[in-house]
Amino acid sequence: MGDLRGKLMAVPKSKISKSKRGMRRAHASLKCETINECPNCGEIRRPHHVCPACGFYNAMEIVNISEQEQEIEEDVA
Ligand SMILES: [Zn+2]
Q1: Would you kindly state where each structural domain of the chain is located, as residue ranges?
Q2: Against a cut of 0.85, is the pTM above it?
Q3: Following CA atoms 48, 50, 53, 58 in sequence, which dihedral angle do they give, to the nearest 10 degrees?
Q4: Ligand 1 centre from 35 Cα, in Å?
Q5: CA 20 to ligand 1 center in whole angstroms
Q6: How far is the centre of ligand 1, averaged over its atoms, from the C-alpha of 45 (Å)?
Q7: Where does the chain show beta strands of DSSP type E?
Q8: What is the 72 CA–ligand 1 centroid distance (Å)?
Q9: Which side of the chain, N or C, has fewer Cβ within a 10 Å radius?
Q10: What angle is formed at CA 58 by the lines to CA 62 and CA 50, rounded to 5 degrees?
């Protein structure tokens, strides 16, 4: 039947061995986020996302970064 302790009913903390606790947490580690290099400018970007540095995706300019920067500067002034 396998080990069903802690799955079917509440089990006191003191009854769970360090080994069993470690087995449960074996898959609990955080994984690194995947990053790719932008083929246009070489900046690091997330896969399936528009490059935040140059605004390119799939070898096309999707977002005009330089125009956006000008708009931000105008808002500040
Ligand atoms: Zn880029």
Answers
A1: 36-76
A2: no
A3: 80
A4: 13
A5: 47
A6: 7
A7: 36-37, 44-45, 56-57, 60-61
A8: 20
A9: N
A10: 50
